[in-house]
Specification:
Order of helices and strands: HHHHHHHHHHHHHH
Distance between the termini: 68 Å
Structural class: mainly alpha
Number of helices: 14
Largest sheet: none
Radius of gyration: 31 Å
Length: 319
């Protein structure tokens, strides 16, 4: 019997399992081993290196469809990746092969209808494998790059994944319907079919929960991570621009510094040339060299550089 309630970190882990035995599957996917005695959720998670907040977000969502967790930023993306990868391993390595064996034992292999049912199951199995392999080859590496602060320029974002993350269990529904409505069998095969059908329903429920966790917990967590990473990149670029680089100041000649001052003051190339008694082409050459040395091309960027390196006083700059 299931007991639907909101679970907290100070609840005993054994209580969660007694109330909702199907959480055993979730424990397995989080990498939580049995034998935790009367420890609380917090204690078990700390002992087994699982983020308790993320674990409870998944548990309460699966049991009660509760998704108003406090803060997506508190979700541990690495814990979610671990959970989703383990779910894939369980499904691809155990559940799909197990169900196939059950169906083979329950069906008459000499019956055309039985062969057709197995073909439907194999098509379903391939669609699930392709879906999960796509996530493992594309989505998870992208997220891991975000976690490690590596460049993801040119990669898709999580919304691209979310927009194309549809249900993949239509073939399973068709398979169950055919077995229930149209498959005649004797008593012996009927018992096996009933058992296989029961496991198919459990399988469908597991897959549905897995997809919902991805949509309602994983995707928001990655959106938050993307936003955080983007803000960090912008801050880093600004920091590189405004932080004084002692070497860069020394590499500029006095004439190049004069040209920067002219640019900051809003002069055209010709006005700078006239002011410094040099040719316009020489000014252009100086500006090209400045951009190459400083990796700053815009007047705004040169203004920041000039202020930080005390080439001009900020009070004299029209912002």
């Amino acid at each position: 019997m299931k007991n639907q309630k909101m679970y907290e970190a100070d609840d005993k882990m054994i209580v969660l399992i007694r109330d909702n035995y199907d959480l055993l599957q979730i424990l397995s996917c989080f990498g939580i081993n049995l034998g935790f005695g009367d420890k609380t959720v917090r204690e078990v998670c700390e002992q087994q290196n699982v983020d308790a907040y993320t674990f409870l977000a998944v548990v309460n969502f699966v049991i009660n469809n509760y998704k108003e967790f406090d803060d997506a930023g508190r979700l541990s993306v690495s814990t979610l990746i671990q959970y989703l990868k383990a779910s894939h391993q369980y499904y691809l390595g155990f559940e799909l092969p197990f169900l196939r064996r059950e169906l083979l034992e329950a069906l008459d292999e000499n019956d055309n209808l039985g062969r057709f049912i197995m073909r439907l199951y194999d098509e379903y199995s391939r669609s699930i494998q392709n879906h999960m392999k796509y996530e493992e080859k594309t989505v998870f590496p992208y997220v891991e790059k975000l976690l490690h602060g590596e460049s993801t320029e040119g990669s898709f974002d999580i919304d691209t994944y979310s927009d194309h993350h549809g249900q993949t269990d239509k073939k399973l529904g068709e398979l169950k319907s055919i077995i229930i409505k149209y498959l005649p069998s004797d008593v012996q095969h009927n018992n096996r079919l009933m058992a296989a059908l029961y496991d198919l329903y459990n399988c469908e429920n597991f897959l549905s929960q897995h997809a919902k966790v991805e949509d309602e917990i994983f995707v928001p967590a990655i959106r938050h991570l993307e936003k955080k990473t983007k803000n960090s990149d912008v801050s880093s670029q600004i920091s590189k621009m405004i932080n004084k680089n002692p070497e860069s100041s020394e590499t500029l000649s006095s004439r190049e510094k004069d040209v920067i001052v002219g640019v900051v003051q809003g002069m055209t190339n010709k006005e700078i040339a006239d002011h410094l008694f040099i040719s316009t082409n020489t000014v252009i050459t100086h500006r090209r060299n400045i951009a190459k040395k400083l990796q700053i091309h815009s007047p705004a960027g040169l203004t920041i550089y000039a202020i930080v390196n005390k080439l001009v006083d900020i009070s004299s700059v029209k912002l």
